[in-house]
Specification:
This protein is 32% helix and 22% strand. It has 508 residues and is of the alpha+beta class. The strands form 7 sheets. Strands 17-18-16-15-21-22-23 form a 7-stranded mixed β-sheet. Strands 3-2-1-5-14-13 form a 6-stranded mixed β-sheet, sandwiched between helices. The protein has a two-stranded antiparallel ribbon with strand order 4-7. Strand 10 and strand 11 form a beta hairpin. The termini are far apart. The chain binds adenosine-5'-diphosphate (ADP) and SN-glycerol-3-phosphate (G3P). Pfam families: FGGY_C, FGGY_N. Keywords: ATP-binding, Glycerol metabolism, Kinase, Nucleotide-binding, Transferase.
């Protein structure tokens, strides 16, 4: 049902995420009018491999769009634009003539290209393309995944070189299908998604020919790189036929936008499957010397791009899922708070969830998870506490790196994502950071950011200042921990992190 105060017109946003696709309809005040969501299958063909069926995802996207529009009780005529946001780096190649994927999408968490990345960095190191792209050579990014597909799907390289194959992250896949697919679909991506491929030059905002040639990726497969807020095309069919498709942003950049972090030094952290802390660094890319990523924050139409520093943590909410699904220590994600609250502290245990290596600030593919400090005293409640603390200390490490790289001291952290409903975690986070943690009224900041960008593109909102007025605080946590306890705990955490390194030998 439409919110009784919302009379329209509206903006719709599609969030094609790692575990689900959702569509949210927003009104002019940035309030949620309706939501529809559907999960898709997680495919694990081998340890470390993670895939998605892109056809299933496109079907789900169409379903949730229809669902959200129907729940809002509106029609295409009420929707001024549609915005897209997506799980980043997840890589798909499909046949331009049939619209069929040539392989499952390879998901951002997939580590099959670890050896390839080592090979590409051999003699030069993992920072081989950092100056151009802002990224270390890691299996996380799209470029090595494209190369793996071209090398491993029979006949694919020849078809790609002949111009029959298209590459896209999920934004490109959704936009191409929305705008007609084999019947004139537009093959585009936005600068934020392109900045996660290891193939885009951060200065020119175009594909880097030298890197393409080093990675042996034919330019013919690549989409055109466009801004994050402009009309790419028109929805070809379905309930939103005729509605302009007017934004695309990687989900973490969309959350930065939805949290209205429009000024240099403003930062947000999103707590979902993984955690991603982004700080707006203004009109110039800031090089990281402390293990962060330099990335594009957003670009509105033909305005100058805004850059960001990012700290990416691979495992946070997924550790809570692991406690539930693999360990059976809790029945629901929310139960971790009850269990952890039943004890005063971690009982001396520290849990470093380096399940697929460590992302920022270490970028160590050879690390694996450890629980350090175990004694007979430790109970499952202490472990639950260590699980929550892992998210807090990992964030602290990112914030420290960010302060060193940017020179900006964090005064408060805006948070969002599924894990922020955990009060104990939010308090622990504030304690670990020694800074306030604030959560906005609209927790769906990812979709909101995509809606904002689409709305700006079609003049639904006049400018970013108008969007700032929509941001309202829902909750705030302030530090309560003594400084000496914080220092001791952080030191123990760092000691536990050291013990994860070097577990995987090169030949494995
Ligand atoms: N109360 C909670 N305490 C801790 N973790 C939680 C809680 N509720 C949800 N989560 C975790 O948050 C994640 C879901 O958040 P969400 O923002 O929907 O993630 P994503 O967008 O990555 O799918 C899951 O990994 C889940 O384990
Ligand atoms: O879909 P999410 O929320 O897990 O986000 C995934 C990130 O974009 C990966 O870089």
């Amino acid at each position: 049902m439409t919110d009784t105060h919302s009379t329209g017109p509206f903006i719709a946003a599609i969030d094609q995420g790692t575990t689900s696709s959702r569509c949210i309809v927003f009104d002019r005040d940035g309030r949620i009018v309706s939501v529809d969501q559907k999960e898709h299958e997680q495919i694990f063909p081998k340890p470390g491999w993670v895939e998605h069926n892109a056809t299933e995802i496109w079907e789900n996207v169409q379903e949730v769009v229809a669902g959200a529009i129907s729940k809002a009780g509106i029609t295409a005529a009420d929707v001024k634009a549609i915005g897209i946001t997506n799980q980043r780096e997840t890589t798909l190649l499909w046949d331009k003539n049939t619209g069929e994927p040539v392989h499952n999408a390879i998901v951002w968490q997939d580590t099959r290209t670890d050896a390839l990345c080592r090979e590409l960095g051999r003699n030069v190191g993992q920072d081989r393309f950092r100056r151009e792209t802002g990224l270390p050579l890691a299996s996380y990014f799209a470029g090595p995944k494209i190369r793996w597909l071209l090398d491993n799907v029979e006949g694919l390289r020849e078809r790609a070189e002949a111009g029959e194959i298209l590459f896209g992250t999920m934004d490109s896949w959704v936009i191409w299908n929305l705008t007609g697919g084999t019947n004139g679909g537009v093959h585009v991506t936005d600068v934020t998604n392109a900045s996660r491929t290891l193939l885009m030059n951060l200065q020119t905002l175009d594909w880097d020919e030298r890197i393409l040639s080093s990675m042996e990726i034919p330019a013919a497969v690549l989409p055109e790189i466009r801004s994050s807020a402009e009309v790419y095309g028109t929805t070809a069919e379905g309930v939103l036929a005729g509605v302009p498709v007017a934004s695309a942003l990687g989900d973490q950049q969309a959350a930065l936008f939805g949290q209205t972090c429009f000024s240099e030094g403003e930062a947000k952290s999103t707590y979902g499957t993984g955690t991603f802390l982004l700080m707006n660094t203004g009109g110039k890319p800031v090089n990281s010397y402390n293990g962060l990523l330099t990335t594009v924050g957003y670009r509105i139409g033909d305005q100058k791009p805004v850059y960001a520093l990012e700290g990416s943590i691979a495992v946070t909410g997924s550790l809570v899922q692991w406690m539930r699904d693999q360990m059976g220590l809790i029945n629901s994600a929310a139960e971790i708070e009850t269990l952890a609250s039943s004890v005063e502290d971690n009982g001396g245990a520290y849990f470093v969830p380096a399940f697929s290596g460590l992302f920022a600030p270490y970028w160590r593919a050879d690390a694996r998870g450890v629980i350090a400090g175990l004694t007979r005293y430790v109970t499952k409640a202490h472990i639950a506490r260590a699980v929550l603390e892992a998210t807090a200390w990992q964030t602290r490490e990112i914030v420290d790196a960010m302060t060193k790289d940017s020179g900006v001291e964090l005064t408060a952290l805006k948070v969002d994502g599924g894990m922020t409903s955990n009060n104990l975690l939010m308090q622990t986070l504030s304690d670990a950071l020694d800074a306030p943690v604030v959560r906005p009224m609209v927790a769906e900041t990812t979709c909101l950011g995509a809606a904002y960008a689409a709305g700006l593109a079609v003049g639904f909102w006049p400018d970013t200042e108008a969007l700032r007025a929509n941001w309202r605080r829902a909750a705030e946590w302030t530090p309560r921990m003594d400084a000496d306890v914080r220092d001791r705990e952080y030191k123990n955490w760092l000691k536990a992190v050291e013990r994860t390194m070097g577990w995987i030998e090169d030949e494995e």
